[in-house]
Design a protein that fits this description.
mainly beta; seven-stranded mixed sheet; 11 strands; 57% strand
Length: 124
């Protein structure tokens, strides 16, 4: 059974930083595309970053590009999301997971399995 456990969320002031962790079990990250999305009540799910571990290609949404950095530790089978210069609009529940790479209309990850999430709250 594939499982993801996110951690590292919290309350931070605008301009601050957080690092989220995602521990994966039941799969070897090297063989999959994995990533992060966030969810806010009343809004659509937003995919923010993912990596195709097979070829190392990494993708970021325009809303986080230049501020968030995705990395992986293959030994620990863990993925991280380093977030800097956080903004109030980054407030959301952050989930990690895996799914299918879809190439239309633009290449993205369609999530099929994900964890419970970790809350990130950015105060102004």
């Amino acid at each position: 059974e594939v499982q993801f456990v996110e951690s590292g969320g919290g309350l931070v002031q605008a301009g601050g930083s957080l690092r989220l962790s995602c521990a994966a079990s039941g799969l070897t990250m090297d063989d999959y595309a994995i990533g992060w999305f966030r969810q806010t009540p009343g809004k659509e799910r937003e995919g923010i970053s993912w990596i195709n571990c097979i070829d190392g290609s990494t993708y970021y949404s325009d809303s986080v590009k230049g501020r968030f950095t995705l990395s992986t530790d293959d030994v620990k089978n863990t993925m991280y999301l380093q977030m800097i210069n956080l903004k109030p609009e980054d407030t959301a529940v952050y989930h990690c997971g895996t799914g299918r790479v879809v190439k239309t209309p633009t290449i993205h990850l369609e999530y099929e399995s994900w964890g419970q999430g970790t809350q990130v709250t950015v105060s102004s």
